[in-house]
Model the fold of this input.
Amino acid sequence: MEALKQGADALFILLGAIMVLAMHAGFAFLELGTVRRKNQVNALVKILVDFSVSTVVYFAVGYAVAYGTTFFVGAEQLAAKNGYDLVKFFFLLTFAAAIPAIISGGIAERAKFWPQLIATAVIVGFVYPFFEGIVWNQHFGVQAWIKGLTGAEFHDFAGSVVVHAVGGWIALGAVLLLGARSNRYRKDGAISAHPPSSIPFLALGAWILTVGWFGFNVMSAQTLDKISGLVAVNSLMAMVGGTLAALAVGKNDPGF
Done:
């Protein structure tokens, strides 16, 4: 039974990793649909290469920074528990790679290709794992300090702060640093319209992200015995609630 559980857990988190990996296609199509047509190829290539750089850097450096674990060991050790530790790395890698994807969307059409890749390597190799280790691996005694102060540790089940807030904070800083897109404002200060280049691609990206979100949230349980239907339905209701709220606030304009 123990062998069956280990295999099931490895498969469970592998499926989660694949679902979150698919979200990167969502990031790509979302950005592809919003940038101008001349920048579509750049947007697609950037997301793909960002993920590749993130994978190498997180494997070699970032995962060790966050968890003190490296994969430069024998194959027998790596294959233990049906290779669960390896697929757990894959799962957490997809979280780490979401950071540059979030930033990429925030600074679309503002940054050069190679400097952004260098920034990706630094963020995924050092910046993100620093926060990841604090929240999910008890680094620097921060969690103990919070527990002593409030009576409970800071709990982030699926990366609301560790992934999305950190990515958003970095993206905000990058946007403020880089400024508006070229020709976004006319000489008189009026806004120059930059309509989305492809509404279908934008919508496709949003739907891929929606499906992948259940892998991101639900499978953050990381083992089958900890899975929660509450997380699944909370994610579902948050999505539909946000959609209806946007519809109301936007007065039926999907592009408001």
Q: What stands out?
A: DSSP finds nine helices and no strands in the chain.
